[in-house]
Design brief:
The protein has 11 helices and 8 strands. The longest helix is centred in the middle third of the chain and has 17 residues, at about 155-170. It has a single domain (about 1-250), classed as 3-Layer(aba) Sandwich (Rossmann fold), CATH 3.40.50. By secondary structure, the protein is α/β, with parallel strands linked by helices. It has helices at about 15-30, 45, 60, 95-100, 110-115, 135-145, 155-170, 190-205, 220-225, 235, 240-255; strands at about 1-5, 35-40, 80, 85, 125-130, 145-150, 180-185, 210-220.
């Protein structure tokens, strides 16, 4: 079971769309996948057409921070299709930042929760993250095997990436986090500034010993509209999903086609 985090503290870089596309794409290839919505905004949850009710268990309960926790893991996950489940989220997850604050080893709660999942249940766990560097983010970074960093190619993205890499390096004492690579998203390839940002990212990735995916997610209206429709890009408009199909294939082959 491989645990992947889609991480960038900057909002608006297609983290949720990327997490969902990777999970649905892997599932279409025959893999058993669990998605964890680890953002209190619940974007991944609503993108899958789900509405969380007060009676439902969520990522907050999964962390074992609530007296309402149901012991049976089957009562926490929601099945979306054969071999594809999700642990949903809502605003209650924001309480975890407070609930965890005074606890020892507070960065490891998500890691412990994931370790309780039988490894034969899933091939991949894909975690969507909140747009900040909070205790929730630190929990994700300590729980994953690898992270993928969506990067919107613009000047404002550069400093955020540097800060994220600094945080990853600081947490390596708790977890041996590997940066799987950067994925360029929402790219308008007609602009010179986009090309300059991509050139910078390639140099930066090389300097820290990781890669930039060759697959580029172009700025396409259907990709932006799919989440509000409660569908993955593959379901919403398959003809607009080619960029993400390329990414999933590259992820599986490690870029060696």
């Amino acid at each position: 079971m491989k645990v992947m985090g889609i991480v960038n503290q900057k909002g608006g870089v297609a983290k949720t769309t990327t997490a969902q596309a990777l999970a649905f794409g892997l599932n279409a290839k025959g893999y058993k996948v669990l998605m964890i919505d680890f953002d209190a905004q619940g974007s991944l949850t609503t993108s899958c057409g789900l509405t969380v009710t007060q009676e439902m268990s969520t990522a907050f309960e999964f962390l074992n921070l609530s007296v309402k926790l149901k012991d049976d893991f089957k009562n926490i996950v929601v099945n979306l299709r054969e071999g594809l489940d999700i642990i949903p989220s809502d605003i209650r997850l924001e309480e975890a930042n407070v609930a965890l604050a005074g606890k020892p080893m507070r960065e490891l709660y998500l890691s412990k929760a994931i370790s309780s999942i039988a490894s034969e249940n899933y091939d991949y766990v894909i975690i969507d993250t909140n747009p900040s560097l909070s205790l929730l983010t630190f929990n994700v970074l300590c729980a994953v095997d690898e992270i993928i960093i969506p990067f919107k190619p613009e000047y404002q993205s550069v400093q955020g990436v540097r800060l994220l890499i600094q945080t990853v390096n600081e947490l390596k004492a708790l977890s041996d986090i590997k940066i799987n690579g950067f994925l360029i998203t929402i790219a308008d390839l007609r602009r010179n500034s986009t090309k300059e940002a991509i050139d910078y990212l390639n140099d930066f990735a090389q300097s820290i010993g990781t890669k930039v995916y060759k697959s580029v997610i172009r700025q396409i209206t259907a990709v932006a509209d799919a989440p509000s429709a409660g569908k993955s890009i593959f379901e919403f408009k398959p003809q607009a999903a080619q960029d993400y199909l390329n990414f999933v294939e590259e992820f599986l082959t490690g870029g060696n086609k």
